[in-house]
């Protein structure tokens, strides 16, 4: 009986002390936020509103963005803009990868009635995308992508881009219920042993 009690105690300690859960995003870059409506994804659209969002997020001034390219789903290559952009799709058009002809600073994923903006601290030319931060309906269903748009910071923008540090993802502790269950089982084992003697 002592062996079983010792094994049960060790098992409970391992369960109570074991790891934590951390949220992982399928998107490259940092989520700036989600917005309703459509992103300003064309050469002719005014980018001042988008620039204000990025400036507020970065705590910087005078960010000057330039629209690079856009791909409409289910297409795989540039549908608008002067740059080269390609998309791949997986998981019912809810995630995939994108590749651009130059390093990108900002991209948006449009799906449903809104879009999500992502900032890339170190501008990169290839990354992953997902519609995981956008939901539709009362059940919060994740929609398929409508389009992906990209922007670059103009080199003559004059503003210094000092991105915020990566957000720290706090670990989620295991529930104390496991410990409570374990102590209850130990108590039952001790009571049973006492009545058997």
From TrEMBL:
Residues 171-193 form the Ice-binding protein C-terminal domain. InterPro entries: Ice-binding_C. Residues 1-23 form the signal peptide. Keywords: Signal. It holds the Pfam family PEP-CTERM. This is PEP-CTERM sorting domain-containing protein. It comes from Desulfonema ishimotonii.
